[in-house]
Automatic annotation (TrEMBL):
Belongs to the CcmB/CycW/HelB family. The chain crosses the membrane at residues 12-28, 40-58, 70-89, 109-133, 145-171, 178-202, 208-234. One of its GO terms (biological process) is cytochrome complex assembly. Keywords: Cell inner membrane, Cell membrane, Cytochrome c-type biogenesis, Membrane, Transmembrane, Transmembrane helix, Transport. One of its GO terms (molecular function) is heme transmembrane transporter activity. The keyword Transcription does not apply. This is Heme exporter protein B. PANTHER family: CYTOCHROME C BIOGENESIS B-RELATED, HEME EXPORTER PROTEIN B. NCBIfam families: ccmB. It comes from Marinobacter fuscus. Its main location: membrane. GO terms for cellular component: plasma membrane.
Length: 241
């Protein structure tokens, strides 16, 4: 009796391979970052220095710091993330790893998402963890500090994801840091406005659920669209290099 031969379909194989590739890219970027500690520490030191020097340069009055403290911390976090974006693809571009990523069978946008996640864990998450200490320094109350940390936790991944697009577009260009700032800062403005607005609303006792929902929408939109845009920008940059 001849048994009917049917093709064996393994739908999970591709997804498992893609997930393994994403984890490999993520872990590699984390290991490389810890080997180059100066790139890892520079954004954190910059964040601390900006927040520390701002009261000295503007006003150390408690009332002023309570009113503008959230804005100070958000601007400092934005600039710190921007400072680290130039290294997101630069090292891989210099040593040829980026070309190998593009040649992989896995979708490039998922590998870029893994690299961006590693960038956020190494840059954005430490800023969130430092925010309560610096929030106390600028005389924010406990509720404002909690809302500030929540907005940074939602907003800093958006900064990394949107910044990945600019880093990919300016890859291989001279004076890429200046051009990257000009391209990305206008796109950061909505996140900055709603991040500081959420903390201001919490300080006044107003409901913040709407602000948080909008920031969550920004994050979902960035996670959905930014990796595709960054992948396309990387292919354009590498084809022109």
């Amino acid at each position: 009796m001849n048994a009917e031969v049917r093709p064996v379909i393994k739908p999970a194989t591709a997804s498992v391979g893609t997930l393994a590739a994403m984890l490999a890219v993520f872990s590699r970027d984390v290991r490389v970052a810890f080997r180059q500690r100066q790139d890892l520490l520079n954004p954190l030191l910059f964040f601390i220095m900006v927040v520390t020097l701002f009261p000295l340069g503007v006003s150390p009055e408690v009332a002023f710091l309570k009113q503008s403290g959230a804005g100070i911390l958000w601007v400092a976090a934005l600039l710190s993330v921007l400072l680290s974006l130039d290294h997101l693809f630069r090292h891989d571009f210099d040593d040829g790893t980026l070309e190998q990523l593009i040649l992989q069978p896995q979708p490039l946008f998922l590998l870029i998402l893994a690299k961006t996640a590693a960038h956020w864990v190494l840059t954005g998450l430490p800023l969130v963890l430092l925010a309560p200490v610096l929030g106390v320094m600028v005389h924010l109350d406990g509720n404002s500090i909690a809302i500030l940390c929540l907005t940074l936790l939602i907003g800093t991944p958006v900064l990394s994801l949107v910044g990945a697009i600019g880093a990919a577009l300016t890859l291989g260009l001279r004076s890429a840091g200046v051009l990257l700032s000009l391209l990305i800062i206008p796109l950061y403005i909505p996140v900055l406005i709603f991040g500081t607005g959420t903390v201001a609303a919490a300080a006044e006792g107003a409901p913040v659920a709407g602000y948080v929902a909008l920031m969550g929408a920004f994050l979902m939109l960035a996670v959905t669209l930014a990796p595709f845009a960054a992948a396309a920008a990387l292919r354009i940059s590498l084809s022109n290099s």
